[in-house]
Design a protein that fits this description.
By secondary structure, the protein is α+β, with helices and mostly antiparallel strands. It has a domain of 55 residues. Helices cover 38% and strands 10% of the residues. The chain contains 4 helices and 2 strands. It has a two-stranded antiparallel ribbon.
């Protein structure tokens, strides 16, 4: 994410520079890794309770879904499919003390 922000910032700055003075920059994560090392931090994958859905429970409850939905106005019903709730998902990686 930091790399993307750096690139976007550089693109904005580069638009302000005359065409004959534009430069191409490439960014690395070396500076970030050095800061983590200096502060005694490490980046790690976070493991949680992820897994597939219980298909038997879905098949059992799916016929009752229309009855439950009748209680709500159509404007209050939304599709929370595979991508619908990613904004609430916890990050895959974290930074922690060693």
């Amino acid at each position: 994410m930091l790399g993307e922000k750096r690139i976007k910032l550089f693109d904005i700055i580069n638009r302000l520079i005359p065409e004959d003075k534009k430069v191409h920059l490439s960014f690395s994560n070396g500076w970030f890794q050095k800061i983590l090392k200096r502060l005694g931090l490490r980046s790690h994958n976070s493991n949680g309770e992820r897994g597939s859905a219980n298909n038997a429970a879905i098949a059992r409850e799916l016929p009752a879904l229309p009855e439950h939905l009748r209680k709500y106005a159509p404007k209050d019903i939304f599709n929370a499919d595979k991508f619908g709730l990613y904004w609430r998902m916890t990050p895959d990686r974290a930074i922690a003390k060693k």
